[in-house]
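mind reviewing both lines:
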Amino acid sequence: PMAERVSEAGGSVDLDDFEFPSAAEVGHFYGKMAQDSNLDLATRIKATAFALHFVMDACCAHHVKGYLLNGHSEWEVELEKQWRGRFNQIGTEQEDIELMFAEISKNVASEFEGSELLDCDSVGDIIESNAKFTQRWMNDSPVDYDLAMDGDIEEPLAQKICLRAISACAAGLALMIGKI
């Protein structure tokens, strides 16, 4: 909408040139809304969903670096494709599905072990923790960072990022749901 208004006025705008509130600030705001017992339940559930969106966004290099337009959507599509691809490997039998979810649950639990996620006091803290996690993988692997900026991701990193995002969402829910 902002770009359209600037265009209508005869100018142009690159949204990457603007400073927006951080994901931690916005997510923290929604996390507080989710805990506000003065709000109706539907509003609080919607705020929980928005807060969790920002928790997951903090696992994305584009959000952490502030480059929301260049390769961002392509990277998220590729990340989801890689994660969903794990489920193509399982059969349709209930036992196969339960084994896959048991493996994912075990991996999520191990993500918590030795993690600071359970020590976080707010959704904002969880988002900041995810941003540090993302900054670490970007620093540790310039190749993965370059791929991310181009909208691509390799499978091992995709799994690591998705497990972190799921773990962080679980930690965020633990903070917010207790108040609903």
Remarks:
- The longest helix spans residues 155-177.
- The mean pLDDT is 83.
- The two ends are 34 Å apart (CA to CA).
- The CA atoms of residues 82 and 156 lie 9 Å apart.
